Protein: Redox-sensitive transcriptional activator SoxR
Organism: Shewanella vesiculosa
Amino acid sequence: MEAELSVGQVAKRCGINVSAIHFYEQKGLISSWRNQGNQRRYARDVIRRISLIKAAQQLGISLDEIHLAFASLPSGRTATKEDWADLSNAWKQSLTQRIIKMQKLKDLLEGCIGCGCLSMKNCPLYNPDDLLAKQGPGPVLLNNQDTE
Ligand code: FES
C-alpha cells in the first residue's frame, strides 16, 4: 500500500473529481504537501476524511460545520470509529433540530397555501423592505417560531 497518494489517486479512490479535492483543500477540510516534483501528495487518511465529508453532505451538514467538527480530530491520523461516533452524534442532534424546524416551516406553509394575504403582521413569509430588521436578521417571523 502506498503511504502517499496523488490527487488523481485520491479522486479515483473517493469517486469524486479532482476539482472537488482542491475545493475541500481550499476550505481547509483536507491538506496536502508538495513532493520534490512540486506535485501534491496526500496522506492515506484523506480517503476517510473525504468519505466523512461526503456522508455529512448527504445529511445536509454544511462545510462550515464539517470544518468545525474536523478541528476536533487530530491531524495526521485516520479518524477512528470513536471519532466517527462523536461526529455522528453531534450531527444527529443538528439533523434532529433541522427536522423539527422544517416540520414547523411545513406547518406554517400549509397555513399560507391558499391564503395569499402576505400580511406583514401575521404571515411568516412576508417582510417587505425588511421592516422587521430591528427584530433581527432573516425571516424574523419564521425564526420566532424556534422559541415556541
Ligand atoms: S399568506 Fe396569509 S398567512 Fe401567509
